[in-house]
Amino acid sequence: EAEVAQSPRYKITEKSQAVAFWCDPISGHATLYWYRQILGQGPELLVQFQDESVVDDSQLPKDRFSAERLKGVDSTLKIQPAELGDSAMYLCASSLRLYNEQFFGPGTRLTVL
Amino acid sequence: EDKVVQSPLSLVVHEGDTVTLNCSYEVTNFRSLLWYKQEKKAPTFLFMLTSSGIEKKSGRLSSILDKKELFSILNITATQTGDSAIYLCALIQGAQKLVFGQGTRLTINP
């Protein structure tokens, strides 16, 4: 069964360091999302791609976060520099097209010390 | 401001009980409402509801949407310990932005 892949699964870093997460969506899915989930809360959208274009990045802290999906397939999310408050689960999701259900990857759990 | 509110936030029941989880919302440009189950990792998709009054069913789980009163319920009958999880309600709004509620933590005791 096709799945969204993410790596790494866990990342521990010190504050002020740079971190990067990778996501490979389900093959053929045009829309890709990055979410951040803080413990005890629902996921919050950071950025949404339609193919290689950013559709919504209104909640992305652009002073330290960046995201790209250069060829419209896999995507990377980067944080530089990491802060203590960035500790969270970072979830990637994809959907076949607009208004379809989104399927989530296993997530990357980030701990910033 | 778009809002998705789930209740209760936490629920503890015994195996075999029936539970009803609630999701109410205030969202502009409503498209669809989704339910997800989240155990120790990423949310897994349960249902997508677009039309009012049509029940979606999968085994012991069922869900229905009321677009007039702006809420949805998720029912689980004959609960099992494997149903213990966080249940998330989310709205597809506008250009497919997904807005999540805070989740209901369900615990099923044997």
Mean pLDDT of chain A: 92
Number of helices of chain B: 0
The largest β sheet of chain B comes out as: 6 strands, mixed
Q: Please provide the ordered H/E string of secondary-structure elements of chain B.
A: EEEEEEEEEEE
Sequence stretches where pLDDT stays below 50 over 5 or more residues of chain B:
none
Written overview of the protein:
The complex is a heterodimer of chains A (113) and B (110). Chain A has strands at 5-7, 10-13, 19-24, 31-37, 44-50, 53-56, 65-68, 75-79, 88-95, 103-104, 108-112. By secondary structure, chain A is mainly β. Chain A is globular. In chain A, 36% of the residues are buried. Chain B is mainly β. Chain B contains no helices and eleven strands. Chain B has strands spanning 3-7, 10-14, 19-26, 30-38, 44-49, 56-58, 61-66, 71-76, 85-93, 97-100, 104-109. In chain B, strands 2, 4, 5, 9, 10 and 11 form a six-stranded mixed sheet that branches. In chain B, strand 7 and strand 8 (71-76) form a beta hairpin. Chain B is globular and about 40 Å long.
In short:
With 113 residues, chain A is mostly beta strands. Helices cover 0% and strands 49% of the residues of chain A.
Chart the SSEs and their pairings.
The complex is a heterodimer of chains A (113) and B (110).
Chain A: E1 5-7, E2 10-13, E3 19-24, E4 31-37, E5 44-50, E6 53-56, E7 65-68, E8 75-79, E9 88-95, E10 103-104, E11 108-112
Parallel strand pairs in A: 2-11
Antiparallel strand pairs in A: 1-3, 3-8, 4-5, 4-9, 5-6, 7-8, 9-10, 9-11
Chain B: E1 3-7, E2 10-14, E3 19-26, E4 30-38, E5 44-49, E6 56-58, E7 61-66, E8 71-76, E9 85-93, E10 97-100, E11 104-109
Parallel strand pairs in B: 2-11
Antiparallel strand pairs in B: 1-3, 3-8, 4-5, 4-9, 6-7, 7-8, 9-10, 9-11
